[in-house]
Amino acid sequence: MAVLLFAFAVMAAYEYGFLKYKMRKRRTFWIVFSLLAVSFLYNVSVYFYNVIPSPNEWIDAIFAPLQDLIT
After folding, report:
1. What torsion do the CA atoms of 7, 11, 12, 17 make, to the nearest 10 degrees?
2. Which of 2, 7, 10, 19 has minimal CB crowding within 10 Å?
3. 14: pLDDT strictly greater than 90
4. How many angstroms separate the CA atoms of 19 and 29, rounded?
5. What is the rounded CA–CA span in Å between residue 47 and residue 67?
6. Conformation bin of residue 23: beta by default, left when phi > 0, alpha when psi is -120 to 50
7. Which residues are CB-neighbours of 33 under 8 A, at least 6 positions away?
């Protein structure tokens, strides 16, 4: 968990520095850090609750019937 927190803290610091250097608008800050927060919450929930399906399982559940029709 500490590694996960450290990795996201590094990403947030890098993004903040980059956005400040490029003088981006406040809206861009909101978009970037909202996406970072959502991805952090998803990773924490997967870390604590292993029953949450991964994106690969979701994609497989959607496209498996289509693949069965093709083959």
Report:
1. 140
2. 2
3. yes
4. 7
5. 31
6. left
7. 12, 15
Tokens of 27: 């809206």
The DSSP H or E segment spanning 1 is none
Residue 38, burial from CB neighbour count under 10 angstroms (0-12, 13-18, 19+): exposed
pLDDT digits (tens, 9 = 90+) for 32-70: 999 999 999 989 988 888 777 778 888 898 899 988 888
Tokens at residue 60, please?
């497989």
Dihedral sign for Cα atoms in the order 26, 28, 29, 33: positive
Q: Measure the CA angle with vertex 53, ends 35 and 66; round to 5°.
A: 100
